[in-house]
Amino acid sequence: MIEILKAGTLTTIQDAGRSGYQELGVPETGALDKFSFRCANLLTGNHENTPAMEAVLFGPEIKFSDDSFIAITGGDLSPTIDGTEVNLWETLLVSAGSILSFSGPTGNGIRSYVSIAGGFVGDKIRSVMGSYSTYLPGGFGGYGGRALKDGDFLNIGIAKENFAGELVLENPPSFGDDETLRIILGPQDGMFTPAAIQTLTSSSYEVTPNSDRMGCRLDGPMLEHLEGPDVISDGTAFGVIQVPGDGKPIILLSDRGTTGGYTKIATVISADRSKLAQLIPGGNINFEVVSQGKAVNLLRDQEELLSSLLIDGRVPLNIKVNGVRVDIVDDEDQPAMGINVKHVTYKTVVSDGHKDHQIELE
Amino acid sequence: MDETTVNISPDFAPMGDSALMVVAGNNISVEVNQKVQNMISIIKVQDWPGIKEIVPTYSSFVIHFDPLIFSFDGLTECIADLWECKEVSEDTNTKTVLIPTLYGSDYGLDLESVSALTNLSVEEVIGIHSETEYLVYALGFSPGFPYLGGLDSRIHCPRLETPRISVPKGSVAIADYQTGVYPVSSPGGWRLIGQTPVTMFDPNRSHPSIVNPGDYIRFVPISSEAEYEEIFEMSSNGTYEVQVL
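Structure tokens for the assembled complex are given below, as produced in the milestone run.
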């Protein structure tokens, strides 16, 4: 069991998000920095989608009543155990009676994820619509539909058998107050003046303090619409940049509305989701346009980084034969970016040291 | 509104690397929305790998997908191929849900102002509002909030100049050409004409929302507060079943 001695600024239970209910107007919710969230779970031997804590700015103070493996990832909020500084991005062993606390942000991100081997469970932590994520405006999910409070108790689930800890993520991400977010233009970049696109990609924008789990509100040069800011209300996605009538961009996040009526100029790529989630109010960002292909490759690299922590039992994202990564091409000899059901067969070349074999995959 | 058009071929727009917006038309019309609903049904049947969820709105839909499993270009090609498909999905299960509604007085604070703005009697406004079957174009704004189209032009009214800080749960409201029900208490600027005792959305139910995109809603006037209270009681303890046509 653990006891929340102090809840901190805003500490909630989150998982990878609610999927399949946006058509009913239910936001995706879930960990804003999904990479760090998943990583925290892998470092404690959990399934990557086990509910964990998301702490913002000033983290909680937590007392453990059992020896436990935990991990802290994401933004550096200066964690200490019994007063001693501890590292992020690695498995930590806490002893019964120990107290984890945070002394505050250091300029390296604003959101920390805390996982525990076995995960947080208990009567009050329930799955709602397929997810443990807390949705504060709707008052459901997570710990009784609310943020954690001083004096809350959480139970710990059953940890992975024989989990020995000692995992470290090599080359973890770091976050600053001057970041470049890579974007793909669209879906409605055509509803802006050419100058607006130029402005977006050549200016610096400031992250304002009234950013929250719904959206990151920016201040900077105005982006001009061709014929007004409104569209027939349509769907949204994590990272999409909408621009209301005042011309100031808002980047939509996990708790965003599922529909929106403002033009959307561009979308931050999935691989930069962590950077976006960790933006510091008052910090600056720039935008750089990249292609779909590059965005997918960057995402694949990130997945590879995470898969280094997998202990067992998951299909690798890349196909390797005898330890050697093989390149898969589609029937037009183009590198396969993912499975495309239009293509009936894929090909790869495997060498046995003597000669190359072309293998067809169906 | 422009004349009704369903796009002969869909417009595709990327929303990053993991979401695709598919635009079926450029206006709010039953025809375009039915194309959206029908395409979604057809796509779901394909059971493509890597599709996470599909979210319909008035005239477009967004497909959330895993780009490491299904490529953006592949997905757009596949949908373009299906677009001509004339087959109307059989298992759409669209239904008309009857929503009991107590109009006026404390339950619909703006009914008098709507009556004044439209030069219709209160009874006429109720009669017009409750005789139409409204298409649920989409749900959004807040969990379970249905965007309903087809409001009779005789009762079109502008939004309130100053939105209310809190609109009671279950409020039935109109604004311009739209009508809707507030499933939970929230701020809102629409004109309140009545209130339903039915719990429209409950996150803990196996089917959280009593209506889905593509369904129809008809509001059925309740005659007394006693009946309202009775339905409210039953709906709150889970024993009320909405009538479905």
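Chain A touches chain B through 53 residues (CB under 8 Å). Residues 313-318, 337-341 of chain A have pLDDT under 50 and may be disordered. Further analysis is deferred to the final report.
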